[in-house]
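[SOLVED] Need 3D model of a two-part complex

Original post:
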Amino acid sequence: MIRAILVLLLSGAAATAGAAPPVATSPGPVSVAVTVYRAPGRGADEAMNLRWLNGFALVTETRRISIPAGESDVRFEGVAGGILPESAIVSGFPKGVVEKNQDAWLLSPASLLDAALGRRVNLRRTSLSTGAVRRTEAVVRSGAGGAVVLETPDGIESLRCDGLPSTLVYDRVPAGLSAKPTLSVRVRSPRAVRAAVTLSYIASGFDWQADYVARLSPDGASMDLFAWLTLANGDETGFRQADTQAVAGRINRSAYSPQRPQAPPLVLRCWPSGTTTSDLVEQEFEKEEIVVTGSRMMMDLAMAPLPEPAPPPPPAPAMMAQQEDLGDLKLYRIPERVTVSARSQKQVALLSRQGVKVDTVYRLDAYSPNPQGLRVIRVLSTRNDSAAGLGLPLPAGRLVLFGTGSSRPLLLGRGSVDDKAVGEDLEILVGAANSVVAEAVRLVPGAGEGGEWELTVSNAQPAPVRFEALLAEGAMKLVSETALGRRHGRPLWAVTIPANGRATLRYRFAGF
Amino acid sequence: MRSLLLLSAGLALSAPAVGQPQPASPQPASPQPGNLAVTIYNQNLALVQDTRQLDLPAGRSRQEFPNVSGQISPETVTLSGQGIGIVEQNFDFDLLSPSKLMEKAVGEEITLLRTNPATGAETRERAKVLAVNGGVVLQIGNRIEVLRDDGLPVRAIFDRVPENLRARPTLSVTLESARAGARPVTLSYLTPGMSWKADYVTLFDEAAGRIDVQGWVTLTNTTGTTFDNADTLLVAGEIGGRNGYNPHDGGYRLPPPPGNRPGTETPGRETLGDFYLYPLRERTTIANQQTKQVSFLDVAGAAGRRAYVFRNSWLGTLDQASSADTVLQFSSSRDQGLGDALPAGTVRVYMKDKRGNAQFIGENQIGHTPMGSDIAITTGQAFDVKVRPVVEKRERMSSSRWRTTMRYTLTNARSQPATVDLIQSGLWGDVRIVEESRKSERRNADETMWRVTVPANGEATVTATFDTLY
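Solution:
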């Protein structure tokens, strides 16, 4: 009799609380499109950190959902975990959307306990000696932060401070708790309908870059340039058979702090439990800590760091990304649907050009009047136009340069390419030159760095080389009878050094 | 049967979520939340008004409000109703926990239930708690023991929950009522933990020079409490005070791109002094840990255009050409614009690709923007429109005068001409432009600007000589 009244009381309370409209759940998309954006602050020469991808993606999903007439809640399951809920755009419902919600209160040991506050639960005790299981009803009187106080038929007790195996058993999952952050919308429909709904949102935890592989011809006058579109998905959600794009160019993102899903660990707390043998100076109040965590796992350790791009594949890749303009950005579309798996990296050919004309220049950047100790850099220089064999937008990324050895390709250097528009100069810094060496000697002393200097450049190669020295601006007077050019606001000494020969330049500084 | 009786008695006394107000109970009444009205500000602050039907006895009575926000500012609480006076308000934040339970039991008796680990046999005895300092010291009959000193299982069972220890911070108010009877009583208080901002979805049609904008208010609730079926009002504006965290305060920010001008139009919205009010059309449940979005603006076909801006710092010289900023310009005016005051938030801009799918092209923040404003936001940088500034020459004219010649090379790889607002900043002091290849516009003491049209697939050059103190 009493039990019946009790049940009535409880169910009555549940009924008044749960006057929510019916729920229609969409377990996953029918088709999906993913556009990946490069991390806004990452430089061209910085590698992607697969454990911490700072780029993002625009995910557009098509879903089919049956909704009843009247008001209903539609839950979208299987969206990316990094979803930025305020960026969600939902279209396709007959009468639009009343409101959009994202509940970040996740189902976890702590939230189960929290939601059970003041409610009746089952306390299950198992005897260690006999194995007998006893179930008792209990009311949770407190549970915040793992400080569990229960009211049982015996009186007021704590949970598991007694050293007995015991646990709370709940009847059901409370409303509003889900395993993953779930986006839902409240809609109104004049009739029951099966709607094709488009959901798009921005999600963090993605990134992409171009990875260039250049192969220099034996004569050094041309190179073959190939690039991978390397995209990475750090999210726990994969996208099967997705229309996949990547966007090149810098876009502005606002600093934001999305509300992270809440799944704090449950740490049971007890009263002070020091004993006569424990160290009484150190007050250890939490003896039996049970940590059950619902937080996100670290990315799989099996994910290796970004590998160096492989040597170039055969000349014509079977599938190559297609480029189009998107406002002031460049969009690269993978022509076929591909699967972008969770926590993985994917590479598709981005571009390929054969026989790009290049000039080799040896360059010295003498930013101080005293160029001692400066190294000459070997630079491959070309122009991003069709005359040189290029003439296409080059998105930012790292580059490896191979030379042709007698029997096998040799790695000559590693560098990077910034976003380069058509018509821009393209320079690939190969590395420090060993055969072209610059030396500076002060012949007449002066104040500070001042005085008369002689710069000698020697060429140990059996062919003439082009050499350029960008000199320091300032009160410089030439001693040598050499005409200096200017480049980018600085004096430029450009000279061809004969095979196995030298060139010298004398100049005088008054000092700064 | 006996245990069930006990349990049900406990339930009726203890469970606030279950129990109805118990006039006969010795415990204070804890009424259910009634008619909720929530006013949310931008600065992580909300005003909650909770109107409940209270059945009050004549004279003094204590009322508990366990369902208030977990982050309530108790000093802002007011309770108003007909014929009541407040004797005192208490905010109990001492939370019930096993430690507190044991500490409050010092000097009192509890029941120990020992379980023999070998046989499972249970023995029960009463014990007096002597002290709880690092461990629990008990007196059992004539013996003094430390609880669970031997590590064996012992259940400690307390007779009751001490007063003033609560599962959640609880507000209790002692009232003096002139007469007995039910009447509506309104509890109002401020709480942090709720905030809102605006999010604008902007679809830009560059060819047509049009934008479609949907505005959403995004409100978040981290108070720890769910507000059921609340009449919600959002207030746009900056409020002062210690809770007034202002994301736009302090810190150096780059000057905005040209094309921003505050408006002077008045929208047809409810206002309260300086604040614009955005009431939600219908009541809504604001769940704990929820982000909720409700539409407030839907405009199709407003005018929008793209502009390019490049701002060079004083003596800025670059090894490589750098991309100009891409700026979206639009208006909040009635004519050709969005026709409303815009609360502060994030504008996300989308464009359609060749297949007609909307793609994201950048975002930026706007502040609280009056109606009639011209708005220009930087969405990103142009891949194809670049500027290379170079300091060509620095000449010392006298001990205090310098002449600096700048050359700016603007390139455009697009198939349409691009107009770039080229800005040289950092012109503080009595800077004169001695010579320039085209006429500049001195925007202010710090900056001068050239509006340069760069031909399609071409380049343009600007040179200027500045006469400066340094």
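Edit: The longest strand of chain B covers residues 290-312.
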